[in-house]
Amino acid sequence: MGALSCANNVGYRDDDKMEAGPSENKGMLMDSRRASCVRVALAFFLCLVLTPAAAQLPRAQAEKELTRKVPAGSVPACSLITRADVTKATGRNPYVDPEPAGQGGWICNVGIGELKAYSGLKAWEAWESTLKGFNKDKEPQIPAPGFGERAYFLYLKEENKYQSNVAFLVVKSGNYTLALSLDAPGEKPAESMRPALESLMRTVLSRLP
Asked: Which residues on adjacent β-strands are paired with residue 115?
C-alpha cells in the first residue's frame, strides 16, 4: 500500500483496539496493520502530532526522512527489536511484527512502538536534523540517568482524541544513536511509558554490534 493510501487511515488509537471483544480480533488486527502502515509511510510519527493546518510540511519532511542516505554498514533497526520485546516491556500486544522502513531499514515500526537507529560518526547530528525538520528541537529534553551523558526523554502530548501521547528515549552508544518511542495507552500521559522505554532500550542496546 502506498504512502498516500496509508495516510487516509490516520485516526487509529490503541485504546480503541483494546476495548474490542474476542469476536473482533480480525478487525482489531486489520486496524493495527492500518495504523502500522500509517507510521511506516510517514516515517516519523512526530508529524501526526502537528495540527491539520500544518500537515503538508510534516508529510513532505516524512518523505524526506524515508529517503535519507545512511552510511555503509548501518545497522538495520529491526535487527535490534522484536514484537516479543515490545510485549514484554509494555504488557501490551502490538499486533504486528517489526516492519522496516527507510534506506537500509534504519526505521523499525512495531505497532505501538518505533525504533530509529542512526549509524556512523554523525549519528547524533542526524537525529538532531530529524528533530529540527519536524520543528520539535525546542521540546523539553528530560535527562535519562543510566543511559549515558546525552541520553534524554522526550514527551509529546496528543493534539486530538484520535492520537496517543508519545514518549521517546534517545540514547547515544558509540557510533549509534537510538531513538525509541512508545505510544501511551488511552489517555495516559506520555511520562507513564518511562519504565517500559527504559526496559526496552536496555534490550535494544544489548543487541548492538
From this structure: 108, 180
For residues 22-46, average pLDDT: 47
d(CA 65, CA 53) in angstroms, rounded, equals 21
**Strands 107-110, 176-183: pairing kind:** unpaired
CA–CA separation, 34 and 15 (whole Å) = 15
158, 164 Cβ separation under 8 angstroms: yes
In this structure, of 37-51, 94-108, 145-159, 188-202, the range with the lowest mean pLDDT score is 37-51
With CA atoms as reference, report the closest residue to 177 among 110, 109, 120, 104.
120
Q: What is the CA radius of gyration of the chain?
A: 16
Residue of 114, 115, 117, 102 lying closest to 62 (CA atoms): 102
For the cut 70, the answer to whether the pLDDT of residue 167 exceeds it is: yes
Are 66 and 112 a contacting pair, CB within 8 Å? no
Q: In this structure, what is the dihedral angle of CA atoms 110, 6, 171, 89, given to the nearest 10 degrees?
A: -20
d(CA 167, CA 156): 6
User: Would you say 118 and 171 are in contact if contact means Cβ atoms under 8 Å apart?
Assistant: no
pTM value? 0.74
